[in-house]
Amino acid sequence: MKRFTKLIILLGAIGISISAPLTRISTAPSLVLALYRNALAVLALLPVIFAKHRDDLKALTRRQFSLCMASGVFLALHFAFYLESVYRTSIAAATILTNTQVFFVALIMLVALREKLSKTCWLGILLTFVGGMIIALGSSGGGVTLEGNLIALLSAVFMAIYAVIGRFCRKDLPNTVYVFLVYTAASVNLTLAVLLQGIPLFGHEPINWLTAGGMTIFCTFMGHSIFSWGLKYETPALVATIQSLEPVFATVLGILLFREIPSLTVVIGGCIVVGGVTLYCRSSDKS
After folding, report:
1. Cut 0.85: pTM above it
2. For residues 150 and 133, what is the distance between their CA atoms, to the nearest angstrom?
3. Count of other CB atoms within 10 angstroms of residue 139
4. Using CB atoms within 10 A of its CB, is residue 213 exposed (0-12), middle (13-18) or buried (19+)?
5. I need a labelling partner for 182 at 20 to 30 A (CA). Which of 85, 176, 223, 224 fits?
């Protein structure tokens, strides 16, 4: 069962890797694109919720509802910052730095949840973090900017908090109900952010609806929803670590679609990140 679960989570990493290329061809502001992506997911889930999960919604406790709303806030922040980072730095740098979230997940687990990891797991996490720092602080070039890199790191922090909160939510909530509430909360918060900044909700080029729809299908349902499902069976650190393989697939797509060749700094840092991911997963299998 564990191998099957990890395989499904790996497929989720492939799904979300499509997000960066779709963002690159979008023209709308990152907040609007993130809003479209979440709103389309909510609309797609509505029939399923009303057909199969009305009783689950009625049975929600105040604590469950509050945690889902909080989770949605951090997911909204993650989406907004991640999409903005793709606009401001290379696809490889943005995806690699965003997926250093495993480091922040582990810190939260240690400090707030008092959960312990083996020394080998910590070594894998450390490699992941070091690889991310090499990319973030390395020389600019090939579309890489320090500002975009820092935004990507912030998106990693928000994603880590979202993943840890999701662990508690998924213990006693069906995955469909959880993601529906989270995507709804994210949509509400993103709408408020768009309105507060005076950005038009509509009137953007049609390509943005197409890219948002692609993100909804491949990245939201085949990506983040799978990660939410996986949190019931695996630790947040393991889910985040497998998700860290996203940059490998995203970088390949960046090369094929945009001829965006990553710089030597990004390649070195990316290899270290992948090495950390592999080490962590092997250690997790033995524990």
Report:
1. no
2. 10
3. 10
4. middle
5. 85
